[in-house]
Specification:
heterodimer; A: alpha+beta; OB fold (Dihydrolipoamide Acetyltransferase, E2P); Dihydrolipoamide Transferase; 4 domains; 7-stranded mixed β-sheet; 4-stranded antiparallel β-sheet; about 35% helix; B: alpha/beta; Rossmann fold; 6-stranded parallel β-sheet; 23 helices; about 40% helix; binds thiamine diphosphate; binds magnesium ion
């Protein structure tokens, strides 16, 4: 009995992943649950665990680290001890994915995997109008061979749609050193004007470009920072949200004095684990969502799916060096505040280390984002599709407040910004929801105790 | 002749005969891999001559050498194992039938090339004479070899230097299938000795007692300083030239049968006193058992490890006794002394000759005259004619002799004057000297220094301006040195005089008078360490010898044009320091190789290939070369100037490369 090892889907919209390397060797005995290989999906580098027991058989033509592979591609087998490999043309399966999967060649370079093509191969590519950046090399260290170029050229003849050709990229003449420099500086050779013989791009052209143009400049000869896989996903998602969602943002000031004092009380216990403001608010929000479940709806085609009580999972937007990422606190309604606090600190640390698993980021029905720590008071958070609402936390500031009995008191105030998708929710229920969140936040202890 | 002597000859011949017959059997069964020339029918010669030799006496032999090795004392099992290609063979599996080495017992090797053994035996004789060891050296060779130039050069050298050398010609009347009567203008070999002022004797080569008698006299003459002897032993091989070859296209069955009846073993038996027959039978039984055991041993022995295939190409690297780093100027500031390239090499040679009595120099005009290029002035007065030995004009001869001398423990320095003349001895250099350490699995050392002037200039024309360094760079076993200045020349010369490998030391004639600071004390420069003559950032230029100076002269000018040149002088071509070049190219991204000689298959091609391979991604421009044109060197100044790169050519190439 043998089991296929395939590229798993790690996230909602993941079509392909960047294979980062095996964690076991060919012939190793593998037990269910052992980490088998590393894969970079849309959001994070992840260890993929074995689902079965067996002896690992890595195919001779298995992908090299840096290869971009379709979800479902077979990259190896787990076989019973002594069993031979099944007669499967699995190699060709992977190769056939190459044209469609090679969209993000830069992730390979980010890993330091040398790719390249010899001058003669480059010339052939020019002659056949084949775009090298769309070919995955099969040579030593993923170097592109003439055969790879010919294969790409003939594939294009068969299914033209699969291979993009762009005269811009195929006409680049650059020295090997310039190519290496461009990769390191993440500069697109397309944007450079070579100053060598016959316009050949030399290292100095790359260095010059890197020095003289500000990062992000849009001028054609500027220093272009090509997006990382993560950033591309973020960009696509936000753009999609912007395109589809009809966002309305409501803001409300809330007296967070009790909230602050509740945290202070936790601190006096001497416990090491102190719930953060966002933990307490998440717990409070879950209670409000239970009451106003429409704010926890998720788009599913024409329908909105409302969660059950134990499906109220709340995303926490986390800023990481690689960009924004949203790990998920699960079953917030039912979990205790302390266990939520423990879980949130764990997933936030994982997020910052770039080691979140796909499961850590799935199934949120609502998101909380906190710009308060940057001193921001109010803002317009963007909804994380397919969710329908998001709550932004502003900075907590002490302010003089006129009390109902006309005294002036120092209170800790905070602004809550709720963005909702007007397609799914009308203003009134959204406002009612925000009101309930405000009320809960102003008297957190009572709410929390009631929830217990 | 005593009974014991007779029995000893008998035993030796029997060992040879039975071993050869067993080898013939093994050959038929496909157990032996290469060629196998048996000695059957000629046993009396090896047995008779070697009966007078000690272990310290040396034997140099030919393709038909099994008998010589066995007679010199090699156990049959070592010979068998060698032919079986085993690690226990006398040459550890590197040689096979035609490369049998056992220097420990004075078996200095057989050779697959007809001729060199005669020259090497002169070298063995020269070492013995120089070191006053009293040893003799013996060359065995066939009738085919006497029509080769080596015979002429060897006999002449042996004669003029009174070498303790025996030349044993085994005239079996055929060279392969060519009869001696056809290929020699004179019917006698022995008679040729007179032409060289040597004693020559014709002997019945199938009569062991007679061979032993005459050889004994020759050995005695050699040991007592009366010089060399030529013996012509008339004999016949009764098996085919080599096992498996046809025999009756060039000779008749009747002729072979007739000679079989004159079998040397049968003849010795016939004259042996009857009372020895019992002991002879015992000897025969012992020999049969010895040969049986030898084959068993060979078959059971392991093959040499494939990983050892590159071992012994060179001798073990020896640490410099006075490394260059210690040779930095002494603390007390003395005015830096400037001497010329040639003076620097003389200083090195003179110092080392004073320290090491095994060094001797050979060449034309290097004695009293002190060398055409002043390479040995004053040394003759210090060391005399044996260590500063003027030679006849026989480059092949004295280079072959140098090989034999190195094999027997001395350190020859061959001064060619013009390196063009090396080509006359190229077979000795490439086939013998360069390969000897390897073929003997490191048991022979080959400290031969071959020096000569190269380079184009002053209308020397084509026979006095060749370099061919790239050709030498292709030979495994050779070190090839080409200094560009006096400082390097001294350090490299000292290194060459102290290392155990053959070194080709090529001196560019046009820079011999160029002076620079050279410390007075002793220092060695290691081979395979390039020097960075000038540091720079834009273009790496690799140049050799005079081209280093040419390029150096351009660097300031180019710097003013904003081109910063890093100039590298490999100093040695083999080994070649590609590391340093690679590091430089990693910095500059540009590589130009400047050579005075034509580009084809040259040093530039080699460097370019290596850098394109390992440094591809460092390159910011194509690798370029500047070379001389592909033509012999002409005489007329206008023509001569047209075939070598000028400083303008080099400057232009650097500028263009910077623009690439
Ligand atoms: C320089 C050279 N030329 C040609 C050969 C090929 N070859 C090998 S043995 C041989 C014949 C040698 O005859 P001879 O010297 O009489 O020795 P014999 O074989 O008779 O013992 C020849 C031509 C060679 N080994 N070396
Ligand atoms: Mg012969």
């Amino acid at each position: 009995m043998s089991f296929e090892i395939t590229i798993p889907r790690l996230g909602w919209s993941m079509e392909e992943g960047t294979f980062a390397g095996w964690m076991k060797k060919d012939g190793d005995a593998v037990r269910r649950g052992d980490a088998l290989f590393e894969l970079e999906g849309e959001k994070a580098l992840q260890e993929i665990e074995a689902l079965d027991d067996g002896v690992l058989r890595i195919l001779a033509d298995a992908p090299q680290p840096g290869a971009v592979l379709k979800v479902g591609a077979v990259i190896g087998y787990l076989v019973a001890d002594g069993e031979s490999l099944p007669q499967v043309q699995s190699g060709s399966e992977v190769v056939s994915h190459a044209p469609a999967t090679a969209k993000t060649p830069l992730t390979e370079e980010a890993k330091g995997v040398a790719t390249g093509a010899s001058p003669s191969v480059r010339r052939l590519a020019r002659e056949l109008s084949v775009d090298l950046s769309h070919i995955e090399g099969t040579g030593h260290r993923a170097r592109i061979s003439e055969d790879d170029v010919r294969a790409a050229s003939s594939r294009r003849g068969d299914h033209h749609a699969h291979t993009h050709t762009s005269p811009l990229t195929t006409d680049i003449i650059a020295t090997p050193r310039a190519r290496r420099a461009a990769k390191r500086a993440e500069i697109n050779l397309n944007t450079l004007q070579g100053t060598g013989r016959n316009g050949r791009i030399r290292e100095r052209d790359v260095v010059h470009a890197a020095k003289t143009h500000a990062i992000g400049s849009t001028s054609s000869s500027g220093h272009r920072v090509v997006l990382s896989g993560r950033r591309k996903v973020i960009a696509e998602r936000l753009a999609e949200s912007h395109r589809l969602v009809v966002p309305v943002t409501l803001t409300s000031k809330v007296d967070a004095t009790n909230l602050v004092s509740l945290r202070a009380q936790f601190k006096t216990t001497g416990e090491s684990l102190i719930p953060a403001i966002h933990d307490i608010i998440a717990k409070l929000v879950a209670g409000c969502l239970k009451q106003e479940r429409r704010l926890a709806g998720r788009w599913d085609g024409d329908a909105i799916v409302l969660p059950a009580d134990d499906e109220i999972h709340i995303g926490l937007a986390v800023d990481t060096p690689e960009g924004l990422i949203v790990p998920v606190l699960r079953n917030v309604l039912n979990e205790s505040l302390l266990s939520l606090a423990a879980e949130s600190s764990r997933i936030i640390r994982k997020a910052r280390d770039g080691r979140l698993s796909g499961a850590d980021m799935q199934d949120a029905v609502f998101t909380i984002t906190n710009l308060g720590s940057f001193g921001i008071e109010a803002f317009t958070p963007v909804i994380n599709l397919p969710e329908t609402a998001i709550l932004g936390l502003g900075a907590i500031r002490k302010q003089a407040v006129v009390t109902s009995d006309d005294r002036i008191e120092v209170r800790s105030l905070m602004t809550l910004s709720l963005t909702f998708d007007h397609r799914a929710i009308d203003g009134a229920p959204a406002a009612k929801f925000l009101q309930s969140v405000v009320a809960a936040t102003e008297n957190p202890a009572a709410r929390l105790l009631m929830a217990e | 002749m005593t009974n014991d002597q007779i029995l000893s000859l008998y035993r030796t011949m029997l060992i040879i005969r039975h071993t050869e017959e067993e080898l013939a059997r093994c050959h038929q069964r496909g157990l032996i891999h290469g060629a196998c020339h048996t000695y059957v029918g000629q046993e009396a010669i090896a047995a008779g001559v070697c009966s007078h030799l000690t272990k310290a006496d040396t034997v140099f032999s030919t393709h038909r050498g099994h008998g010589h090795a066995l007679a010199k004392g090699m156990p049959p099992r070592e010979l068998m194992a060698e032919l079986f290609g085993r690690a226990t063979g006398c040459s550890r599996g590197r040689g096979g039938s035609m490369h049998l080495f056992s220097p420990e017992i004075g078996m200095m090797g057989t050779s697959g090339i007809v001729g060199p053994c005669m020259l090497q035996a002169c070298g063995g004789g020269y070492s013995a004479k120089l070191m006053k060891s009293g040893n003799v050296a013996v060359a065995f060779f066939g009738d085919g070899a006497v029509n080769n130039g080596a015979f002429h050069e060897a006999l002449n050298m042996a004669s003029i230097w009174k070498l303790p050398t025996l030349f044993i010609c085994e005239n079996n009347q055929y060279a392969t299938e060519v009869p001696f009567s056809y290929s020699s203008g004179s019917p006698t070999v022995a008679g040729r000795a007179a032409g060289y002022g040597l004693p020559g004797f014709e002997v019945d080569g199938n009569d062991a007692v007679e061979v032993a008698r005459i050889a004994g006299e020759a050995v005695a003459r050699a040991r007592s300083g009366q010089g060399a002897t030529l013996l012509e032993c008339k004999t016949y091989r009764t098996r085919a030239h080599a096992e498996g070859m046809g025999d009756f296209t060039y000779r008749t069955r009747e002729e072979v049968d007739a000679w079989k009846k004159r079998c040397p073993i049968v003849r010795l038996k016939a004259i042996t006193p009857a009372e020895l027959s019992g002991r002879m039978e015992a000897i025969e039984a012992e020999v049969m058992e010895m040969v049986r055991e030898a084959r068993e041993f060979a078959e059971k022995s392991p093959y040499p490890e494939a990983t050892s295939a590159t071992a012994h190409v060179y001798s073990e690297a020896r640490a410099a006794s006075t490394p260059e780093s210690n040779a930095i100027r002494p603390a007390a500031p003395s005015p830096p002394r400037e001497i010329s390239f040639t003076q620097a090499t003389v200083e090195a040679l003179a110092g080392e000759m004073a320290r090491n009595p095994t060094i001797f120099v050979m060449g034309e005009g290097i004695g009293i005259r002190g060398g055409n290029f002043r390479t040995t002035p004053g040394l003759y007065d210090l060391h005399g004619a044996e260590r500063l030995c003027d030679t006849p004009i026989c480059e092949r001869g004295f280079v072959g002799l140098a090989g034999g001398a190195a094999m027997t423990g001395t350190r020859p320095v061959i001064d060619f004057m013009f390196a063009d003349f090396i080509l006359d001895s190229i077979g000795e250099v490439i086939n013998q000297i360069a390969k000897m350490q390897y073929m003997s699995s490191g048991r022979l050392k080959m400290p031969v220094l071959l020096r000569g002037c190269v380079g184009i200039g002053h209308s020397a024309a084509t026979h006095h301006s060749g370099s061919y360094h790239a050709l030498y760079g292709q030979v495994p076993g050779l070190r090839v040195v080409m200094p560009s200045n006096a400082y390097d020349a001294k350090g490299l010369m000292l290194r060459a005089l102290r290392c155990n490998d053959p070194v080709m030391f090529l001196e560019h004639r046009e820079i011999l008078t160029a002076k620079c600071h050279v410390p007075e004390h002793d220092y060695e420069i290691e081979f395979g360490k390039a020097s960075i003559v000038r540091e720079g950032t834009d273009v790496t230029v690799v140049a050799l010898a005079k081209m280093v100076l040419v390029t150096q002269g351009l660097c300031d000018m180019l710097q003013r044009e904003n081109i910063s040149v890093e100039l590298i002088d490999p100093r040695t071509i083999s080994p070649l320091d590609t590391e340093t070049i690679l590091r430089s190219v990693a910095k500059t991204g540009r590589l130009l190789i400047v050579e005075e000689t034509p580009a084809a298959f040259g040093l530039g091609a080699e460097i370019a290939a290596q850098i394109a391979d390992t440094g591809f991604n460092d390159l910011d421009a194509p690798i370029k070369r500047v070379n001389g044109v592909f033509a012999p060197t002409p005489y007329a100044p206008s023509l001569e100037a047209a075939v070598v790169p000028t400083d303008l050519d080099v400057a232009q190439a650097i500028r263009e490369l910077a623009r690439e």
